[in-house]
Amino acid sequence: MLRAALASLLLVLPAASMAQQAAKPATPAQQGPVEHPRVTMHTTQGDFTIELYPEKAPKSAANFLQYVRDGFYDGTVFHRVVDGYMVQGGLYSRDLTQRRTRAPIPSEADNGLSNLRGTVAVARGADANSGTSQFFVNLVDNRRLDYVSNQSGLTWGFAVFGKVVSGMDTVDKIAKLPTRAQGPFVGDVPNPLVIIDSAYVVGEEKAAPAAASSSKAPAAEPAKPAAPKKADKKNDKKAT
User: Fold this and answer.
1) Which residues make Cβ contacts (< 8 Å) with residue 32, sequence separation at least 6?
2) CB atoms closer than 10 angstroms to residue 196
3) Cα gap 55→78, rounded to integer Å
4) What's the CATH number for 33-235?
5) Domain limits of the chain?
6) For residues 126 and 210, what is the distance between their CA atoms, to the nearest angstrom?
């Protein structure tokens, strides 16, 4: 749901005026579509590619791209997998310690995008504006996670900022893995762990994955991380 005007200061003959009008540059509505950046994630279960929607979720897309370019996701895991619902990752290293994140971003859940199958959204805690590096991929149409109102964290919903356009079979494969309790989580941790070996913006491929990222010392607790399973379900409208 997007929100340029041109004006001429010269008075010319009618014929010249018509020619000038015909030569006016196109307005945004007439120009081609906004270029959508794409991010490929190489995981231990296969690859998938996400197309981002910066015109709909500019803050969320820019935030995600910055984490990708910083090599933040390299060596992180999908720590929460619920078949028939979603797969979530982007914060925990393979030893299930949290990484240090940047400051949270404002929620853009009211951007008109719905949590349909294959879409990618910002994961957060009870506060609608607590999203940092975590994201999740919807395995089914989860419309109950959409924005309803700004009255509370429950009605704010979850901000969609992209969609898997290639490799959804990899995401489905991850969803089918058995899960168990591990580390700080009481369940839903895939077994074996699914590790993001590398993530890069398409067209900006790295010469070599930032392997050192996975060997960083355990990071301090980030601002308002998503809670373990029971709290998560409360925050996502008690979805199962």
Assistant:
1) none
2) 22
3) 27
4) 2.40.100.10
5) 33-235
6) 32
